[in-house]
Amino acid sequence: MSTARTVPLDPATAMRLDLEDIRIGYGDSTVIDGLDLVVGAGEIVVLTGPSGCGKSTVLRAIAGLLPVRGGRVLADGDPVVTTSRDRAMVFQEDALHPWRTVRKNILLALALRGVPRQQRREHAEQWIAEIGLDGFGDYLPKSLSGGMRQRVQLARGLAGSPRAVLMDEPFGALDAQTRTSMQELLLHTLAGHPSTVVFVTHDVDEALLLGDRVVVLGRAGEPVRAVVDIPHPRDPRRRGDDATLRLRRTILDALEK
Ligand SMILES: Nc1ncnc2c1ncn2[C@@H]1O[C@H](COP(=O)(O)OP(=O)(O)OP(=O)(O)O)[C@@H](O)[C@H]1O
């Protein structure tokens, strides 16, 4: 399976996101203060940073689940004021409906994204094949391994081709081998379903593998610690080369500040 995107990214299908000087918080506390970030159509931008610095909070603001207190979040130039089926969330925790089969979980996501009823069944079968779960369509989540459940979550997140996908540590609970295969699956799947991705992770190697750009957030209220452009994103031949190791060091130094 290739880890490179195999189709050109189409700005018509992927969404541009602009965060302009945003401030977000809960109650009396401010978590993010003055964050600027541009995510171009079809880019994968990785957010990392110390625990509690506000990575999930930023995703919630982009999703439209949490209003900003200052600045603006723009989706293709329009202020984000609420959730939209164009912006999907994929979480680490098991967000599958436990009483629905794999197929029904995916069918529901397709319905929520507005895929016409007569096309849903076929799309669901395509997704089941794409995530390598042929033969498991009638299984309930509890009968699947953690990695298999996460595959279904990925299909649910990307089903109906949302124009932006917001991924909150989606592979954080998986063992190293399953995590690697999920990263490959994500890149392979995105090649066929171009989308803009904002991806939160604590894992520097995952950030280096997936991102066009890695943004290291500071602790709540602090400025961004580093923005690292990845010169050859998703090129497996660059893993371990000197340039990549230098970028790795930069990210680790920023995390340890
Ligand atoms: N619903 C909430 N109500 C009040 N405070 C919250 C809420 N959600 C998060 N916070 C606080 O906001 C801050 C940022 O939380 P957030 O979950 O965004 O951080 P994070 O960087 O994603 O953390 P982690 O890496 O540990 O997942 C933390 O101090 C957290 O306690």
Question: Could you tell me which ligands this complex binds, including any ions or cofactors?
Answer: adenosine-5'-triphosphate
Distance between the termini: 37 Å
SSE class: alpha/beta
Helix fraction? 25-40%
Task: Enumerate the strands of the largest sheet in spatial order, edge to edge or round the barrel.
Answer: 6-7-8-3-9-10
Keywords: ATP-binding, Nucleotide-binding, Transport
GO molecular function: ATP binding; ATP hydrolysis activity
Protein name: Nitrate ABC transporter ATP-binding protein
Organism: Gordonia lacunae
List the helices and strands and how they pair.
Layout: E1 17-26, E2 29-39, E3 44-48, H1 55-63, E4 70-75, E5 78-79, E6 87-91, H2 102-112, H3 117-130, H4 146-158, E7 164-168, H5 176-192, E8 196-200, H6 204-210, E9 213-216, E10 226-229, H7 242-256
Parallel strand pairs: 3-8, 3-9, 6-7, 7-8
Antiparallel strand pairs: 1-2, 1-4, 4-5, 9-10
This protein binds adenosine-5'-triphosphate.
InterPro entries: AAA+_ATPase, ABC_transporter-like_ATP-bd, ABC_transporter-like_CS, ABC_transporter_ATP-bind, P-loop_NTPase
Keywords: ATP-binding, Nucleotide-binding, Transport
GO molecular function, one term: ATP binding
